């Protein structure tokens, strides 16, 4: 009779179905898997113990490490640091640059004459002054003529009376003309005058430091011989500009004198001089 249940039967049950299971082969086959599992576990444990044995020995018996000898350094003397002393810098004023002033000639009614470039710089020659004779008005003061007195004494040297036979004359310079038929002119015209002023006029350092700019109105007389005289400041700026304007005007060469009735006459002339820096 077959008592094997296939739903729960193992391979050993099927192999030993109907055979003698008591002699030991059946039991050995049934215990084979248990023995295999125990052997595998034992092999794994022994392998782990073998691999980890150095670590276990090192943990149980750690090596003795000798410490290095301590190095004793010589004492170092620390010197205090010197604090630097900074001296304040002295501000040096920048040098005052020489700025050439701009001179604007006075406006005149003289028509502008266009010439070639080579004639722009005319040579300054001394003007020819025509001798037209004295034109000054001489104020003459006539003295009274004395009459001989009558002597009353006798002999020598006792008579009285005097005789004035001469005349006393005193001359005063004539007043310059304010306007004339032909006004005086700088030799070479206004353009030459402007170049002369730009070349010789210097900006006073005091006026430059104080930012002074403007016009200085100068009045002077162009004599009948072209010379410059009686230079005056009508309206100044101060700070050395007035003195500089007077100096340059006095050092100008002779002008072409003005004329009145075809005669050279002294003419009063006004001229503004502009001090301006850019």
TrEMBL record:
Molecular functions per Gene Ontology: energy transducer activity
Domain TonB C-terminal: 188-278
A GO CC term assigned to this protein in UniProt: plasma membrane protein complex
Residue stretches of biased makeup (Low complexity): 161-172
Location of the region described as Disordered in the Swiss-Prot/TrEMBL record: 140-175
Keyword Oxidoreductase: no
Entry's localization field: Cell inner membrane
Principal location: membrane
Biased composition (Gly residues): 146-160
Coiled coil: none
Any GO BP annotation: protein transport
Membrane topology term: Single-pass membrane protein
InterPro entries cross-referenced by the UniProt entry: TonB-dependent_transducer (IPR051045), TonB/TolA_C (IPR006260), TonB_C (IPR037682)
Pfam family, one: TonB_C
Keyword Transport recorded: yes
Keywords: Cell inner membrane, Cell membrane, Membrane, Protein transport, Transmembrane, Transmembrane helix, Transport
TM region positions: 39-61
Recorded family membership: Belongs to the TonB family.
The protein, known as: TonB family protein
Organism in which the protein naturally occurs: Hymenobacter sediminicola
Lineage of origin: Bacteria, Pseudomonadati, Bacteroidota, Cytophagia, Cytophagales
